[in-house]
Amino acid sequence: MCLELMNSLVAAVLTVCALVSSVHCASESIAWCYHLPSCNDNTWPTISPQYCNGNQQSPINIVPASAKFNANLTDFTFKNFNSISALESIKNTGKTVKVTFGSGVQVSGGDLSEAYDSLQFHLHWGNGSSVPGSEHTVDGKRYPMELHIVNVKASYNGNTTQAVADSKGLAALGFFIEEMSGTATGQPASWKTLTSYLTNIKDKDDSVSIASGISLDDLLDGVNRSRYYRYLGSLTTPACNEAVVWTVFKEPIKVSKDLIDLFSTTMYVTNSSSPLMTNVFRKIQPEQPVTESAGSSIRSASTAWYSLGLMALSLALGRKW
Ligand SMILES: *[C@@H]1O[C@H](CO)[C@@H](O)[C@H](O)[C@H]1NC(C)=O
Ligand SMILES: *[C@@H]1O[C@H](CO)[C@@H](O)[C@H](O)[C@H]1NC(C)=O
Ligand SMILES: *[C@@H]1O[C@H](CO)[C@@H](O)[C@H](O)[C@H]1NC(C)=O
Ligand SMILES: *[C@@H]1O[C@H](CO)[C@@H](O)[C@H](O)[C@H]1NC(C)=O
Ligand SMILES: *[C@@H]1O[C@H](CO)[C@@H](O)[C@H](O)[C@H]1NC(C)=O
Ligand SMILES: [Zn+2]
Q1: Which residues are near ligand 6, the ion (C-beta closer than 5 Å)?
Q2: pLDDT-derived band of residue 297, with 50, 70 and 90 as boundaries?
Q3: Residue 261 to residues 140, 187, 195, 253, 258: CA-CA distances in angstroms?
Q4: Cβ proximity of 250 and 296 under 8 Å
Q5: Rounded Cα–Cα distance for residues 180 and 210 (Å)
Q6: H or E stretch including 192?
Q7: What family is reported (predicted)?
């Protein structure tokens, strides 16, 4: 019993560390990593067993053909995503690049049970644009990068211990990042600005403040946020708490190759004596039921009519749709 209590305390501390700034995280004790066989994701179920070997783990491969349409998955309301001063600081955590938000950024709607406070986003990547490193995959396709916006139920007032004890305490918004076609460099401008900070945070625990000027909307430009997948899963890093309502947007953010490449060529796991940060993503976990929002798939009118025809046929045959 004592051991169990200890484990849950450690899990809570680690989760808080992952979510909140590291000021409170001197006690981080489970040394997990991506790059060494002794602490990479193969070991997480062993070194962080309370949740990492659970049965509702993330990330997953999404199979669009198996995703069930859910009319409740309506549009979100994004509060202060248009603020050009909401992005406060950017940090090398040794595992990712994390951008922390000021207060007042929120997401609601989209069949979330209440408003969720948006705390931070961070990124997952492979090794440049040619070795993809998104966490989720779609029909087995892995994108170059994935951006995660982490949100916590507003009613917990920032108490992440309570949030991770609730199977829907956190809401994660996942955005794929794809290489922009053509030969453009330094595009889009918002990503050029964001990545310009990377040279100031090459080493672990380096952190700098972000000048006002770019908004979340700027960074998410070009993505139709009405079109998304939904499933219930976990944090993708230890302690892997199964407390996350996942939203994965179908359309990728398009960023030029030179900017994508900066992540795997600039950021060190600790410092210039250590490896560069590459392949910072967890491997695919067992499938979960996935639903999709209204109008998620772009279909031609004829395909839509064909589906309606099939539906009518199956109704006529008395099949449960
Ligand atoms: C949609 O929401 C309604 C009302 O909360 C609920 O009864 C229904 O089961 C939901 N539908 C799906 C497909 O989840
Ligand atoms: C990443 O790519 C670079 C350039 O192609 C290569 O030198 C390096 O070994 C790769 N790193 C890993 C971890 O695969
Ligand atoms: C968070 O909630 C837990 C459980 O209700 C409580 O024990 C703890 O004191 C709270 N933490 C903070 C920082 O308020
Ligand atoms: C890198 O970090 C290690 C371990 O903290 C330290 O011993 C070493 O001096 C650092 N090297 C440089 C070049 O900063
Ligand atoms: C976004 O997708 C929805 C659903 O497919 C569609 O109705 C809407 O027109 C799209 N919006 C834009 C700006 O393309
Ligand atoms: Zn993540």
Answers
A1: 148
A2: low
A3: 22, 13, 10, 15, 5
A4: yes
A5: 25
A6: helix 189-195
A7: Belongs to the alpha-carbonic anhydrase family.
pTM for this model (two decimals): 0.87
Instruction: Check pocket membership of 155 for ligand 3, CB cut-off 6 A.
Output: no
Q: Which domains does the chain have, with CATH numbers?
A: 8-296 (3.10.200.10)
Residue-averaged pLDDT of the chain: 88
Distance 8 CA to ligand 3 centre (A): 14
The tokens describing 114, both together, are 């209440």
| Banded pLDDT at 148 (limits 50, 70, 90) | very high
CA trace torsion 75, 16, 49, 288 (10° rounding) = 0
Nearest CA to 99 out of 177, 15, 197 is that of: 197
Closest residue by CA, ligand 4 atom 8? 273
Which amino acid does the sequence have at 113? S
